[in-house]
Amino acid sequence: WVTGADFDWEMIELARQRAEQAGVGGWVTHEVVNATALPYEDGRFDSCRSERLFQHVAAPEPVLAEMVRVTQSGGQVVIADADWTSASIDMSDLDLDMRLRRLKATRTSINGTAGRQLYRLFRQAGLEEITYDFAPLVLTDYKMMRLVFGLDHAETLMLNEGAVTQVELDGWHEKLRQADQNGMFFAYVLGIVVAGRKP
Predict the structure, then answer these.
(1) pLDDT tens figures, 42-78
(2) Cβ count near 32 (within 10 Å)
(3) Distance between CA 19 and CA 26 in Å, rounded?
(4) Cβ(113)–Cβ(105) below 8 Å
(5) Burial class (CB in 10 A: 0-12, 13-18, 19+), 143
(6) Nearest to 172 by CA among 84, 89, 105, 102
């Protein structure tokens, strides 16, 4: 994790408690460090993984370089992240769908296309035996989708910039709420998992 003034230290404490409850507290630790300057020696770990981090990183190359550096030769580096341009909601207004998708990928995430970049980044980092897989997140609950997609923030941006009208949004909300009530609501976003071996 990258340190920050607004970091929620309660998350670390909660993670520690859950590790204890799971019976792994003796060998699991949680630390707050700078992802671009990990305080570990070269080859410290058997493997290294990251999940949904790179979409929050403007410059992913130094973060991946640090992950590779602290992984031992022959070890695996595994990263899972989203490509927010793949986010889609079953709706009749395709133009609005595309506007929301574009905004989510370019404005509400620091690096909203992180998932699609991983294969190239792994190749550039010199990793070998690279594999990839897709992990779709399917949402059939409207409220959960709004939370996962961060739509409150996205819609506020669109309104402020004139990219959508309140009338458009109100009509869209009503259609999606109706679909949800009828058990017809459907949305998804693709996650991509890429793994590679350090030479």
Answers:
(1) 999 999 999 999 999 999 999 999 999 999 999 999 9
(2) 12
(3) 8
(4) yes
(5) exposed
(6) 89
